[in-house]
Automatic annotation (TrEMBL):
Lineage: Bacteria, Pseudomonadati, Pseudomonadota, Betaproteobacteria, Burkholderiales
Residues annotated to bind NADP(+): 46, 145
Annotated Pfam families: G6PD_C, G6PD_N
Biochemical pathway: Carbohydrate degradation; pentose phosphate pathway; D-ribulose 5-phosphate from D-glucose 6-phosphate (oxidative stage): step 1/3
Protein name listed in UniProt: Glucose-6-phosphate 1-dehydrogenase
Gene designation per UniProt: zwf
Enzyme class: oxidoreductase
Species, as recorded: Herminiimonas arsenicoxydans
Signal as UniProt keyword: no
Amino acid sequence: MALTDFDLVLFGGGGDLSMRKLIPAMYARDRAGDLPATAQIICIGRQNWNDAEFVQALNENARQHINEKVFAQASWDKFCARVRYVSLDATDAATYQPLNDVLRSDTNITRVFYLATPPTLFARICHNLSARGLATEHSRVVLEKPLGRDLASAKEINLEVGQVFKESQIFRIDHYLGKEAVQNLLALRFGNVLFEPLWRREWISDVQITIAEEIGVGNRMGYYETSGALRDMLQNHLLQLLCIVAMEPPLSVSADAVRDEKLKVLRSLKPFTPTTLARNIVRGQYRAGHVEGKAVPAYRQEKNANPESNTETFVAVKAEIDTWRWAGVPFYLRTGKRMADQLAEIVVRFKAIPHSIFTQSNSSFQPNCLVIRLQPDDGLQLNLMAKTPGDGMRLKPVELELDFAETFKAPRMDAYERLLLDVLRGQLTLFMRSDELEAAWEWVEPVLRYWEHEGNEPMPYTSGTWGPAAASALIGRDGLQWREEALPE
């Protein structure tokens, strides 16, 4: 689907997200020939730069994040020629005239305002755009996470932004939904008859969703200290992945059909009780250790850290869904920094065979499981039991592997590339609706209140491990193991 002409306005255009993700994503799509010849990318910032000075900043900061396989100097120069820079104070509508001057007045041109700013600025920017007559019926606004700190602030953002833009114009972005493997999860579930009869409580033992990072907080301490792993990862990325795994088949892939089913999952999550708050949640904070053979400091020893901080860098939760399909099936969600490996994966583990006709002593039985890898390399892995070569009937686990990069030779789109194209096309399927956002906050907010009330410190875990021992106990109480613990030696 070809793109119509557009003006893309990046508030926070000189910031980290724009330099690392947004500018490289737009360059990649320009290099692929997706952008109309006259489309503009307008970057907003406070620095008093002209266009040439901003292009120099792009060369110094954005260029290094572009894959060398898709980079060509001529196409980069062509891309930079469509970039404009505007200096203004996003909080002051009186300073917006330079943006008026750069935006084109043609009503057939799509305007997209991407707010790569702190969420405290969302409402102010939207109202300022409205006050200057820039928020037209053909405009769209993109909101980056975090979308609030709790349910009340999320509702406030929805209310304030909704006074300027209609729901159909608001794109709440979660970049995990743009990953190729997440799209393939939808294809796997709803494009194949093989798994649908098994995708239910009668056949599935448990589901594990892990987003693990080897890195620490880096230069994000200011943000992370006020956020923590639950707000940063679980409330959005992990819950969105859970929704796609657990939702009922939508009527179509249209935006509201898919989002209606995701909302039903969020509203079916079993609410926390005082007992489950104490029993089914683990929070941790990394201590000094070694990652990839290098010594790394504790969270409290990172640059600009609070030496008495109780901010969690790890969280694991046992969730349950009260529906006919999923009643009794535990969903284990886990995320953390400074962990043993860099990965994001969904593990759907099936129940054990009801009766074995094989001699147990000669076989290494493991339940079948389906692994959907999201990063670092996306693909599918199905674990089965097979006979080993030779005399006798001895079984062992084997893996059927599908590497998407190997199978499909075409260049892969980054998550932000796909999502930005969807914004420019006005396709809302991969973006959260306001009721989804509020339902997610409603479920996790009791956890935040419990931590505030209890005031207990997060459990320490050594950098380079899989988190606190309590995370293993969380799943172990149900007679289960995290996937890396269950793998044969």
